[in-house]
Amino acid sequence: MEKLLNLLKSNARLTNAELAVMLGKTEAEVAAEIEKLEKDGIITGYTAIVDEAVYDPNSVTALIELKVTPQSQSGYDDIAKSIAAYEQVESVRLMSGAYDILVSVTGTNIREVSRFVAENLAAIDAVQSTATHFLLRSYKVNGISVTANEKDERGLMFP
After folding, report:
1. Domain made up of 1-40: CATH architecture
2. Which InterPro entries does this entry report, sorted A to Z (predicted)?
């Protein structure tokens, strides 16, 4: 199962026939294993990794740290679910450490993302504070390298 998951993580477009050859199994065995992984909630979806800088050079992605007050009956769950409902939000993760929730948001420009944080996230009663970090460049996403083999032409200078 681990080998199948690793293959799907690296390329979810592999066919069952290709996976069967790689795993030394039949297509039917692979299909049954994938179906079980989906049914058990281990595989929850499939997605394409898009280099946003190439697709839309004007878009911006921000990682927003939230310190929140957990709710008496639901802890962080209700807060996280309400944040996840926003269209701009790509991911919501409960964290350990200096902040509680990490939110990833993509927008058309910095002003739009800043407005979203101020008007939507900071306005949630349970949110104590926010810290917004704008993504400058991605090198690897979900285990996949997203940079072309670019040559660093800055060069080194010695005195």
Report:
1. Orthogonal Bundle (1.10)
2. AsnC-type_HTH_dom, Dimeric_a/b-barrel, Tscrpt_reg_AsnC-like, Tscrpt_reg_AsnC/Lrp_C, WH-like_DNA-bd_sf, WH_DNA-bd_sf
